[in-house]
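Dig into this one:

. . .
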Amino acid sequence: MNTIVASGVRRREARAVRRAGAAMAAGLAVLGLAACQASATGRLERADPVTPSVAPAQPASAPDRAASTPARPAGNTPETWRLVFNGTFTGRALGTAGWSTGWLAHGITPPVSQPELECYDPANVTVSGGALHLSLIRQPHSCGGKARPYTSGMINTDGKFQFTYGFMQARIWLPGHAGQIVNWPAFWADGQNWPKDGEIDVLEGLGGKACWHFINPAAVRGNCAAGTFDNGWHTFGADWEPGSITYYYDGRAVGTIKSGITHAPMYLIVNNATAHRYQIPVQVPADMRIGYVRVWQHPGQRSGS
């Protein structure tokens, strides 16, 4: 986010703290999966799904069939929205004005958490056919002090775009098998001071299901959506407002969280991870495709770099 030396030092220190907390992140992922599977009387706090107010949108057969950018997000009630981030992938390479590759560093980087089996390689981030491809392949590499059997792709807007409140939405093709999402693909938002600032998981493939969560130091709250979301184009969104986050899959509201909601600025992340944990079906190679990533805000809500 900053260009002066002192700010750069603070950012490197913050990144070191976040990497040191990777084990905690892995533990929270386990809790998130438990939230999907536990009963309502379980010890982990769980957000109940909400009744859809609109009919589900039909998945398109292409990354983005619309000739023009929609005036507002899919499924949200009519309100005043302005588009503040429009990440599309119609060229031949990733647009680096809005995106970086890897996990908070240049070149080949370690994954977010130690249990993951991949290193993130910029070569696994490609653009073709109007979509971004994050390719998980069998290619042994060492990163984060550990040899890993695979490389994959990640993109993020850290230092280039962040926002406080708004509607984030992505159109994604998730690789799958027999009705299950394979590996650990995710579309999420993170703050600069994790976990204090919170983490908004719009979509996280866990145990073969499409799951949504909000994580802060107090708890992991969320659930997994009913339905099949693999091997087809689907939209995944979250309306982050003061005091609440409502999650939308294919224009249908699937859940709302109203406890401990962050007000810290967040940046966007999309990645295609995998791990032999959390009941994740591992399948390699696997191609996660993204048609667009967009953020809308109400007038007066803040965004920037």
In short: Residues 1-17, 19-26, 33-59 have pLDDT under 50 and may be disordered. The longest strand covers residues 131-143.
